[in-house]
Amino acid sequence: MSCGAEALAQTTAGNATDSVNHPAANKYQPAKAAKPAARSKALRTRQSAPVTAGDADGGSEAIVVTGTREIGKKARDAIAPLDIISHKQIAATGQGTLRDALALLLPSLTTPTAGFDAGAMTDTISLRGLNPNETLVLVDGKRRHNTANIYSNPGPQQGSTASDIDMIPMSAIDHVEVLRDGASAQYGSDAVAGVVNIILKKQARGFHAQNITGITSEGDGFQQGVYLDGGASLGSRGFVHVSGDFVHQDHTYRSAADNRTGTYQNNILSQPEQTRESVAVNAGYDLTDNIQLYALGTYAHRHAESYQNYRLASSLNAYPGYQAIYPWGYSPVETLNENDFELKAGVKGDFRGWHWDVSSVYGRDYDDIGLINSVNLSINKATGRTPTSFDVQGFNNQQWTNDFDFSRKFEFSGWPHSVNFAGGASYRYEGYSVGTGSPDSLYGNGSDALAGTNPGNAGNYSRDVAAGYLDISTYLAKGLQLDLAGRYEHYTDVGNTQNGKVSLRYDITRRIALRGTISNGFHAPTLAQKYYSALNISPTAARGLIGAGSPGALANGSSGLKPERSTNAEGGFIVEPIRNLHVTTDIYQINMRDRIMPGGNISGATAIKAMQLNGFALPSDISTWNQSAITANWFGNVASTRTQGLDITVTYLTKLGAFGRIDWDAAINLNRTRLSHQATNPLTGAPLLNAASIAYLTTAYPRSKIIFGGNWTHAKWIIGLHEIRWGQTTNQLTYYAPGPYQFSTTHFLEYQNKPKWTTNLDVSYRITPRWTATIGGNNIFSAYPTRVPDGNRYLGAPQYYMSTSQLGINGGYYYFRVNYDL
How many whole angstroms from its chain centre is CA 97? Predict the structure, then answer.
């Protein structure tokens, strides 16, 4: 395993390229004398095996397609910070999902410590301490559709409906290119923090199988993953590559004792159980020597379950039907049945020096959210019926993207350097639907823990997005590269936007280079942020998230959402002071205006009235609850922030002669976000954010993340050892213990999740040329987050704080992996 930093990637990614879907850089270009059959064979096999770090130039000659519109751009010449993670690095982590693997490889990438409710069952990523919505996910250079499952609970990920990268089979991935740079001018909305471009395998031969079995240091959380892929030729002019994953993980249980009972029955602090099956079919075919047809289909199904807070047996004293079913109380379980698919088809080619690409991509994610092991006391009281399972919510997100891209290099008299000209246009349809809950989930006060969505909060919503872009790149002088990009987009719901980007790189010598970028960007509010609403009910508390344009929100000062806007500046240098030592350093600043998060927190009678205006059914005795424990809010443009940071990557190769070699790597990300402006409620003049919400924006992501170590390779052995230091996060905790500040929304306890060190170790042995076995562990000494003070744990159980993005709650993870290559 390694940190996956830019320099290391240049020594591991080999000559892998996006040979299907990048509009210009990936067009297959054979030798002029090649015969058609030879052309197609090269098309199918052009992704060579990863080049080892010992090849001084091979890795740095890797062709990249992210962040550039030029053909054949090499990793060593990248004008912006770019990490390349090979499939071998991903597999070496022993993780069963791409999200968790990338978190162990990239310091600038973080994932949630844990999650609540349905949000815990969608896998999202964040770059540079910004919301997952600010990171754009591409597959083979084409925009990937987003999940329909919004993360609605308070925390730094709140409001995110980013692409769930784990719905793409991990077995289908050749490598991942991560652009750590604002790229809205190049790719459009969502690319404020950067771009993750997942490049799929396109080999026309071979078969690969992988099995990963793992368990946590506590003996729970069993994981089993099976990953298969293989390729075949389509005659002499094409290929098809088929991949499939089966992944299952069990619950983990990390709750402390419930302070109501002193027992460990409350499993609220746990990893969800989930089973996921996914498949991908990727194909390409040369229609002529200059025109290629390509297609991709992915499908994934996931079933997941997430615990809710334990309900006491005494809560059923007046309901004998349910008391007979749950004599010892019950823990509602939220379920997710998800179906996700994407279909892509396109044709590209060359015509008189012009490289062109026409494509259409349709993706859809459908989420059916239910409850099991729950109750509806109103039904029992009125009819005597005792249903225990409910369909509570349904969400559908669809996206249809159509692109036309072109590029060509020009030579002008009087200008000594070629000029690469690229441009294109796109049309995108986005649709979002919210379905009602079943009658049983809506009756009376609704299903316990999560009431069904009522008809007043359901609906179908859509918008159209049209865009055009231009990109020009050239050399201004020897060693001085310039790239200019501009983009115009029109959204039918939020209007127009214009974005630009200027990048420079100056190679002072063969071993020293400087680079810098200035750009502006935007992120349009998602349809889910505009229209989603839900009511979560705990044993003694209720929290409503209401639509920004709903009657309850408008009555309390909400206004329509507008896009977030950013200004990005970045600068750095690349040095190779001695052979085999590669160092990159980049500093960055991201100013974001009109950031979207829930704001305008209201509580007590005001919150009750707002939720009733939106048609929510509330518990009949809610007026007797602690009124501070009843809250509501809505998404708004709440604040402006400034994020500043530093990325450093270092790789070095030590040759040990007869004793093999060691590939050393180190990488660090330092990141800080500060609040520069806070919006106020137009009706009351009160700030839209409280201290807890400000902390989600500014200090819930690690101040630093460091990864360093090495891989020793000798004969049939590979041993990898890496350390990860997770920096401090700071949050403001609610008081739950009886006292003057119980459930207060204005007084909080500052909680510091202290820095943590984890050690990752893996040992691989090549049994035969085709079989390899690995035993390893991540966080082998079982470090855990800092414990939360007793008085700040709701019901006592959540001993670790989940609404942050630092070290996970599971402790150590140990695995056994077997690989077969044909």
Answer: 12
Q: Is the pLDDT of residue 51 over 90?
A: no
pLDDT band at 730 (very low <50, low <70, confident <90, very high): very high
Dihedrals φ, ψ of 775, to 5°? -120, 135
Determine the Cα–Cα distance for residues 647 and 181; give it in Å rounded to an integer: 11
**DSSP secondary structure string for all residues of 683-724:** TT--BS--HHHHHHHHTSS-SEEEEEEEEEEETTEEEEEEEE
List of residues 6+ apart from 814 with CB closer than 8 A = 214, 215, 216, 217, 776, 777, 780
Reply yes or no on whether the pLDDT at 109 is more than 90: yes
Q: Per DSSP, what are the bridge partners of residue 503?
A: 483, 517
| Torsion of Cα atoms, 532 then 536 then 541 then 546, to 10° | 10
CA 587 remoteness from chain centre: 23
Phi/psi of residue 183, nearest 5 degrees = -135, 30
CB 796 within 8 A of CB 258: yes
Highest mean pLDDT among 24-28, 84-88, 186-190, 341-345: 341-345
Cβ contacts of residue 203 below 8 Å, gap of 6+? 44, 45, 47, 231, 239, 241
- The rounded Cα 163 to chain-centroid distance in angstroms is 6
> Bridge-partner residues for 408, per DSSP?
421
Encoded tokens for 480: 């001085």
Q: How far is the C-alpha of 717 from the C-alpha of 699, rounded, in Å? A: 42
Under the banding of pLDDT at 50, 70 and 90, the label for residue 456 is confident
Token readout for 296 is 């991709």
Q: Which residue has the higher pLDDT, 24 or 743?
A: 743
* Cα–Cα dist 19/127, whole Å: 26
The Cα–Cα gap between 308 and 298 comes to 32
How confident is the model over 406-417, as a mean pLDDT? 89
What residues have CB less than 8 Å from 815, skipping those under 6 apart?
94, 212, 213, 214, 215, 223, 774, 775, 776, 777, 778
Model's pTM, two decimal places? Answer: 0.90
Host H or E run for residue 378:
helix 377-383
How far apart (Å, rounded) are the C-alpha atoms in residues 427 and 465? 6
| CB contact at 8 A, 160 and 122 | no
What is the biggest distance separating any 2 CA atoms in the chain, rounded to whole angstroms? 91
Residues 785 and 34: their CA atoms lie apart, in Å, by 59
Report the mean per-residue pLDDT for the chain. Answer: 89
212 contact partners, CB below 8 Å, separation of at least 6? 94, 95, 96, 223, 224, 225, 227, 815, 816, 817
DSSP string covering 774-795, please? EEEEESTT---PPBPPGGGSGG
Neighbours of 402 (CB within 10 A): 15
What pLDDT, in 10s, does the model give residues 747-796?
999 999 999 999 999 999 999 999 999 999 999 999 999 999 999 999 99
What is the C-alpha separation between 729 and 546, in angstroms, rounded? 29
Confidence of residue 62 (pLDDT cuts 50, 70, 90): low
Contacts with 674 (C-beta within 8 Å, 6 or more apart), sequence order: 641, 642, 698
Transcribe 293-335 into DSSP letters: EEEEEEEEEEEEEEE-PPBPGGGGTT-HHHHHH-TT-B--EEE
